[in-house]
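Task 17 of the worksheet. Students: predict the tertiary structure of the chain below and write it out as structure tokens. Keep your answer in the requested format; marks are given for formatting as well as content.
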Amino acid sequence: MQLVLDTNGLVVKQRKRCFQIIGKEQQRLISPEKVTSIAVTADCLLSSAAIRLAVEHGIPIYFFGPTGKMEGKLWSPHFVGLASLRRAQALWLESPDCLPWAAKLAEKKTVRQAGHLQELHRLLGSSDELAAGMAILENQRADMFKAGETPHDPERLRGRLMGLEGSAAKGYWAALAAAAPEHWRFAGRSRRPAQDPFNAALNYLYGMLYPVVEGAVFAAGLDPYMGVLHAEEYDRPALTYDMIEPFRPWVDALLLDLCREDALDLRHFEPRDGGWWVGKAAKAVLIPRFNDFLLGERTEDGERRSVRNHIHAYAGALAELLRAWYDQRQATLLP
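Model answer:
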């Protein structure tokens, strides 16, 4: 599970080889064996012993701002090993062989967006917005597949895929807005600051998804700063940005379910500083439901796994692809 520290004034110490969480009214012990990551969203005090316990168990610590954007992180130094795999990753990114993977990545996101709209069509019935969104996504998916099959240089393919994704997004978000309950509808996708409560909640959920994907990238031995589609994001974990994309539609579906169930209350979102922000009461709903979502199982590509394990499997598959590619490359270089 992800341990979320979201109350100002919390103190985290180490006691009996466990994390001791001390609040104003109560305290508890949590075994590090149960913790996959620690998310700090409020002003807390973490002792050096607690941080060392996290390092010892390979538990990354993430620091988030009020919108859910990650602002800092701490992790064990063992994450920076595996030099041969990192070398393979760097060489692969310089070759045209990375381009089909990039196209399949974008295509997978579009397929999952279309699947989400199809499920909404099944649940809610036909609507002009859903029909239009599904048609746009199918056309863009076909174009993404063609882009991956046609030789391009990395810059041209990146621009092509980003353009196709942008076109697909317009139809997708219009369909989602129409499918949302009337009081949750929104004019379009907005980030920081969000221009409505729906986007504020979505930004917060994406913020929680990000460290899960980054953790999978690290666990697979990959360098999160060497990506394909987001390669121009200087000093940013570009591969993590790449690999989060096909999992966003699952989070979109989670949020729309919460809105349709009336699990969230608009009064728990705060309008300020030219945007909308997630209040503590809304976080109290979003955080546990997101953690349940990660543990929930679904079948993809013939494999039934938890969402978290699907993410780790995706990162692991890329690592295996790179190892095989590197071995083949080295074999062709032998005299």
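Marker's comment: The mean pLDDT is 86. The chain is about 55% helix and 15% strand.
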